[in-house]
Amino acid sequence: MRKQSDIIRELQDRQKELQDRLNAAEAICKDLLSHLYNSEVQGRIKFDDYRIKYTQEAIERREAEAKAKQLRDNFNTAKADFRDMAEANFWTLVFLNEKQRQEELDDIWSTITSGLVLPEDAKRPQHIVPELTVDQLINRRAELLDSINKANATQYNDTIEHCNQSKADFALSMERERDKQIAEINRKDGLKESERQQQVSETQAYFKREIQKHLLEMNRQISSAEVGLKRLEDYKAELAKVEQALAKQLTH
Length: 252
Prior knowledge:
8 helices
């Protein structure tokens, strides 16, 4: 094993080598800056500015300032998005009691800030839901009635029924056609067994893709119809609340 004195001497030699390189780099920088500013004094001043600016303490301070600014920007963006979403959910919030309303606002804030880094002391902004006016209720009632009248529950239900039936019928039809084509391939003469197996595999893969494609399309249409039905039920439920609130306002 090497002696401790040898290790220390090696480290000292490396330190001296690094210091020599640092001195050379400083000299080159000063020389270049002096040429750039046509003045040795100005070059030295600029070099000192850079040395102060790029100390580790200065770098850490700038990084901390940049991080703090990013956190502030994130918070400001989150507050703006929260306000917009809360206002967009006015007709949901307005019919809730205070406890339910605050829980709903908490959910909105959680959704917006999920995965977003905020300052440690960041809190959800307060949001005041204004009292309903008669004009607001009348206008909202008209909007809901228009939406309800445009929706076609019968068509939604027919679509769901048709698509479910189509999934079964199409799959059965395609499976019969697949089996027919595979039987024809198996009856072909002059085919190598490897060729026969390849044609069978390709035929099976083709019909599997077509059945899956049809299944996905039918499921898409079913999902869309179910969303339409759910939206219609939501309109009707809100309409009942609007009419109740309107009747209450008009009788006071």
